[in-house]
Design brief:
Blueprint lengths: L18 H9 L3 E13 L5 H6 L4 E16 L3 E4 L1 H4 L4 E5 L5 E10 L4 E6 L9 E2 L10 E6 L7 E15 L4 E8 L11 E3 L4 E9 L7 E5 H14 L5 E2 L2 E5 L2 H7 L7 E6 L4 H5 L6 E5 L2 E2 L3 H8 L8 E7 L2 E7 L2 E2 L4 H10 L1 E5 L6 E6 L4 H5 L6 E5 L2 E2 L3 H9 L5 E8 L2 E8 L1
Parallel strand pairs: 7-12
Antiparallel strand pairs: 1-2, 1-4, 2-3, 3-6, 4-5, 5-6, 8-9, 8-11, 9-10, 10-13, 11-12, 12-13, 14-21, 15-16, 16-17, 17-18, 17-19, 19-20, 22-23, 23-24, 24-25, 24-26, 26-27
Helix pairs in contact: 8-10
Amino acid sequence: MLALGAAPLRADVTHRHTAVVEVVQKVGPAVVFIGTEQRVDSRLRGSTLEDLLLGPGRSAERSIQSLGSGVIIDPGGLIVTNNHVIRGASAIHVILSDGRQLEAEVVGSDAGNDLALLRVQARGPLPAAQLGTSADLMIGETVVAIGSPLGLQRTVTVGVLSATGRSFKTRTETFDDFLQTDAAINPGNSGGPLLNLDGEVIGINTALLTSAQGIGFAIPADKVRRIVGELRSFGKVRPVWIGIEAGPLTAATARRMGWQRSHGVLVQRIDAGSPAESAGVRAGDLVVDVGGSPVQDVDDFDARLRSYPARTPFTLGVFRGGRTLNLTLTPLEFPAELADGLAWERLGVKVSARKGAAGLVIVAVRKESQAAEIGLAQGDVITRINNQPVDSLASFREGLLASQGRGILVSVRRGAFTYPIGFRF
């Protein structure tokens, strides 16, 4: 006779082997924990024993550690995570599901889409997850998140897909086209996979609303595939040329054109010979969706365009003459020489390299431009764009092109002083 409470000799777990369990067993080994270190110089103030030993005001190097998640997408050691997980890291440590710790190198990263691609070297192939599609997602379907929230490695949470095409803004950025889920996502989940019940990665978990419960966001798989392909080939997302200058859509304009909804942007100008012109877009059109998802405003429109690398076609929903046209647009690599025209038209400056000196000197300022309103003048020197040094015309152009559709921070030196100046771009 068995004692009360004794476990059965052979437990039958077949009835508990649910679809979620299958997903975790299938994909769990491909999910990794990511720890990073950032070496920083700090001026000490004598407030700790270490400070006292070094002496006040001495410079010391400290290590700031952060953590996140990632998912292996190639048996050769390629790992997808969020850019914000590894941003500024001097060392990246990846812990596999079997406990091995490997050092990772950054293949490429893109802050605008918050994605990064890492590579680790291991003996033999690694377990890899399959990157699925976000094109056939169903609102309400069960989803599974795996990651390391608050450092608790290989944590599994389950919920439903709450919405697609979500956009939201921070103080400095617009993030677009996110999946929304009520599967619990906490700090440390960033970079981990959101999975469907087939065990496919349908998104990369990225953000949560701290003021709410059960509202998390993931980058959809189709966008991940586009960006990761670009990072794998080029180490970055190359600036692309669309050729559309868009402006806000007012209620009065929408009524006049017969558009009964509030979302969309007004095409103000089309660049001659541009991909937009080739696709049939015209000045005066309303762009109402990109890739099948509604466009809310100009910031949203610009953010969506940044997720399509060069030579990746997508559809553009254009409202014209009382009907919506679906046009196919294929962006191209941005011609570097056009950056000088953008600087003149949008910022209001012409610049020139300085022989034997860092930075670019402003040689002309356009009247009634942003630069003129701010008070920039000939002889001022541009030293940085978005906190990146400017030491050549090439780096100046690259900084401008990477800032399309966003604000741009330019450091300008006049005499002995340097001033940070924000431009609309």
